[in-house]
Amino acid sequence: MEGFKSNELLLKTRPPISIIILVAINILFLFESITNWVWIIYLLPLNFIFYIQFCRFCCVITMTQEFIKVRYFNPLLKSKTIPIKDIKTIDYQKGFYDFFSRKTIGGTLFLPQYCFDRLIVKFKDTKGSIIYVNVNTLMFDFDRVLKFAIELKILDKM
After folding, report:
1. Percent of the chain with pLDDT over 70
2. How would you write the chain as a 3-class SS string?
3. pLDDT tens digits along 114-152
4. 151: exposed, middle or buried (C-beta count within 10 Å: 0-12, 13-18, 19+)?
5. Which of 20, 66, 134, 154 is 20 to 30 A off residue 28, Cα-Cα?
């Protein structure tokens, strides 16, 4: 892309709303467990289920001319930095929220099975390495990432 410096920040996504809801659930959990310890029985499984379903892959994606960086909020997941020069192509799969996309990951009857999007990165090396990067950004911020990938000529079409 002409007109951009090599280290210039092209895109930074926003954190998803589910992380704010998780913090609110934790504050409620602490407040209610202080006043009545029986709430622990109800709020601990709710907190765990909400985290697993909606917050496991919460992250911020940063794109520059040279790399794509995925920084997860979960300390158990390792952040990923992918150099643009090593990428052959990028493909993607969208989460449950995009009903009209042909690349939507399926779900169950009333509860979405996949509450995250997925970047499928194919590298230029001789082995043809592929990595799957699960991401959960603010809803529809993933479309911005895909538009910048098209501008960087590593994604063909949406």
Report:
1. 82
2. CCCCCCCCEEEECCCCHHHHHHHHHHHHHHHHHHHCCCHHHHHHHHHHHHHHHHHCCEEEEEEECCEEEEEECCCCCCCEEEEHHHEEEEEEEECCCCCCCCCECCCCCCCCCCCCEEEEEEECCCCCCEEEEEEECCCCHHHHHHHHHHHCCCCCCC
3. 778 888 899 988 677 899 999 988 877 888 888 888 888
4. middle
5. 134
Amino acid, res. 125: D
Region 5-25: mean pLDDT is: 83
Give tens-digit pLDDT for 47-69: 888 888 888 899 999 998 899 99
CA distance 52 to 58: 11
Asked if 54 and 20 touch (Cβ cutoff 8 Å), the reply is no
Higher-pLDDT residue of 58, 101:
58
